[in-house]
Amino acid sequence: MTDPNAIQPSALDQLPDRDPEETAEWQASLDAVAKAAGPHRAAYLMRRTLERAEGNGIALPKLLETDYVNTIPTAAEPTVPGDEEMEARITAWNRWNAAAMVTRGSKYGVGGHIATFASAAWLYETGFNHFFKGKEADGSGDQLYIQGHASPGIYARAFLDGRLNEDHLDNFRREAGGNGLPSYPHPRRLPWLWEFPTVSMGLGPLSAIYQARFNRYLTNRGIKDVSASHVWAFLGDGEMDEPESTAALALAAREELDNLTFVINCNLQRLDGPVRANFKIVQELEAQFRGAGWNVVKTLWGSTWDELFQLDTTGALVRRLREVPDAQVQTYQTRDAAYIREDFFGKDPALVEMAKLLSDDKILDCFHFSRGGHEPRKVYAAYKAAVEHKGAPTVILAQTVKGHTLGTGFASKNANHQMKKLTVDEFKTMRDLLGLPIADSAFVDGVVPYGHPGADSAEVRYLQERRAALGGPAPARRVHPVAPLPAPAEKAFASFDKGSGSQNVATTMAFVRLVKDLVRDKETGRRWVPIVPDEARTFGMESLFPSLGIYSPKGQTYEPVDRDQLMYYKEAENGQILNEGITEAGSMADFIAASTAYSTHGEAMIPFYIFYSMFGWQRTADQMWQLGDQLGRGFLIGATAGRTTLTGEGLQHADGHSPVIAATNPAALTYDPAFAYEVAAIVKDGLRRMYGEAAPGEDPNVFYYLTVYNEPLPQPAKPQGLGIDEGIVKGLYRFNTAESAGVTAPANAPRVQLLGSGTAIHWALKAQTLLAEEWGVAADVWSATSWSELRRDALEADAALLRGEERVPYVRQALQGAEGPVLAVSDYMRQVPDQIAQWVEQDYSSLGADGFGLSDTRDAARRHFGVDAESIVVAALAQLAKRGEVKATAVKEAREKYGL
Q: What is the mean pLDDT of residues 368-373?
């Protein structure tokens, strides 16, 4: 049996030891220290030795945790430039107004958060005064991802510098009147202030990483030099539990994104209580980030702790800090000095002796107030270290007290996230603590006043001078006056109008062929950003590898295995394709950064992100909302779409519902094109609307979702006639009639209208022939390119009618005069075509692939779901039988004939 106390072999035992005697001497030295000074001293020396090795670039595994102390020693802290006293007064005004805003709004029941900004005020103020570059700075300024619950503090600062007034603050969370402020950072609601929506936790850190990466992409490709821009992401320690928060840490380190800094506000509390009640979240995060390759700066303790650390000659204080769980640290925040003496210092004789040298006031100052995140000198040191560090991103772990300066009723209380107001007496106590000149008489009828030193005060002048020196106000969003992009040559789109002849072409391949032509356009080709999550070969995109290159900041440091082939795997520093590996979330973050470059950087980029349709909206719908919130523009391509088209892949790959989810997003224009010429027409119109000249009343801040299929079929030529392109874009047009299709039906035959989208139109066309030849029924076939756009137009028409305006929905106009009932079919659940049911005047029914998917051939799957041509025939006959236009027995006969 193995002795558990025995020294176990290490990896080094597998290597030859060229000097065993020297090795033994080092080991004996360690044993001697442990015996003479104790294991804690031995551990201390080992940590310091490893730190020295790391600093000297010696190849050793990194320490994942350091002591629970500040990374930057007090003696190494740089002098803070500027007027610290002035900055303290500015911060005090912002603390006051943030709390006043939420408290005044509480009478309306709209909620709000006070404690978060109270803990993080200096983390923001230090950045605004010294680091965060505005939009007029070099490059595009900095990108700030503000923690959502801290928004009142940002509004308070905008109020101080004159960008907001009291009326704005009084309408916090009350936007319907037109002069309000959104609860959280929201570009669509307050587009001149907010750049990034961040309150959907976890998406902020993920997006910040890919934004920093996209900044490098723009610079390396020569689109725009934004190397001076820095991305700052402000996060909560509880937020880091979201899987998206840490999903891309390795990417940031791997690509050496030293233009990125995470600032994690470690107030040790989440919404319901401690983040890590029995553990230490700071140490956990340090290990996680250091293990991923990040530079970690811990800013934990304020200057009052300096004396305690000087007294810690045995290391007992540092050991005790490492072992006390976070929930107990929170408890110390609310207890008296006697409790802290007994519970914290009383556990170790050396600490008992230390405590005798400390007054009660000193102990309370340390444990109640003195945190690194509350002292501008320590925050400045951390920020300066972050921006000067090269070769890796930096995370700053700043310890704070949630509810700091709000009084004992707030600080570190479990419920403080839900506490929305302070009493008048609590405000007066806060006023005295902050030293603000607000008289008791200013509290009229118990209403807390806003505070402002005056537009021409020294505080406001200082604030504005600092911002001017840093490139203007922040945060701020600018839509630069970018000229519309020229339309690509018509040839790229018109080539699909003639069809594919006898060649079978899937619509996925049609889209890829279109993109190949568009990226070669001399004017706009370089602005396309192809994004794919490790499925380029699935979608037939490998031919783009050698011509466009796959983006890599390292270029290609190896010889690819397929270098002798025409379509070899080519990586390049200026590569155009973003091939993200197996990460839909990362790909969506790429897309968001690219789709908003028109605002963030004043450069219109045209991203298209192509993915298995099942793994788009189902996996990353929250990011699609973020995309809409951020006013992104571009093309999402759900490839290998449909529930029955992806033959053999089965339930988990069978998409029968993405258009349903997409229809819930107000910014998404969802299309399910059937033919190659439809794909071309939709992309052409999307380029016009988003990047060219949008029509009056059209919002260019939309994105397109196209479902395309992997079923190779003959692509027909575009039908001749007026209004085809308009019908494709609006969502419906008649592809053919029974007569134009050349199918034979008796004179005065019963007639039915078949509406199909995507690949389902081919089943409808086969059903058209069967109905005519075997049942004497004439059918017209319509291509429904977008059920959701038809619905959106109809809803707008309904709203217009309520305003007293006469307007007929387009779907009703298109189908006006069409004879017989309407039968709609798609490769999705019936909810998709049923979106238009209430606006169709004819009798309406639908078929769809409801339920779970299954593995089988396409024909078998379609028969299983009842959407194949024969099933359409039976459903059409049932409709006509109900109207008395065919015999009722025809339905039974058809079922038996087709074996349904």
A: 95
CA-to-CA separations, 434 to 118, 152, 155, 441, 724, in angstroms, rounded: 12, 18, 19, 18, 68
Q: Which pLDDT does position 42 carry in this prediction?
A: 82
Report which secondary-structure segment, H or E, holds 503: none
> Cβ(434)–Cβ(122) under 8 Å?
no
- pLDDT value of position 415: 59
Q: Which of 479-493, 639-653, 870-884 has the highest mean pLDDT?
A: 870-884
Our measurement of the distance from residue 885's CA atom to the centroid of its chain's CA atoms, rounded to an integer in Å, reads 54
Angle formed by the axes of helices 115-130 and 376-388, to 10°?
60
Q: Which of 491, 489, 485 is nearest to 527 (CA)?
A: 485
d(CA 88, CA 215): 34
- Write the CB contacts of 316 (distance below 8 Å, at least 6 apart in sequence): 348, 350, 351, 354
Sorting pLDDT into bands at 50, 70 and 90, what band is 35?
confident
Spatial CA neighbour of 732 closest among 719, 740, 723: 723
Mean pLDDT of 362-385: 96
State the virtual CA torsion across 296, 300, 305, 310 in degrees, nearest 10: -20
Instruction: Give the pLDDT confidence of 606-618 residue by residue, as tens digits.
Output: 999 999 999 999 9
Reported as a single tens digit per residue, the pLDDT across 100-146 is 999 999 889 998 888 899 999 999 999 999 999 999 988 899 999 99
User: What residues pair up with 493 in beta bridges, in sequence order?
Assistant: none
Q: Are 604 and 527 in contact (CB under 8 A)?
A: yes
Residue of 298, 295, 299, 382 whose CA lies nearest to 78: 382
- Backbone φ, ψ for residue 193 (5° rounding): -105, -55
Counting DSSP H helices and E strands in the chain, the numbers are 34, 20
Q: Which residues contact 548 (CB under 8 A, 6 or more apart)?
A: 519, 530, 575, 576, 577
State both tokens at 521: 């356009």
| DSSP H or E run through 714 | strand 713-714
Summary mean pLDDT of the chain: 93
Give dist(CA 326, CA 335) in Å, integer.
Answer: 15
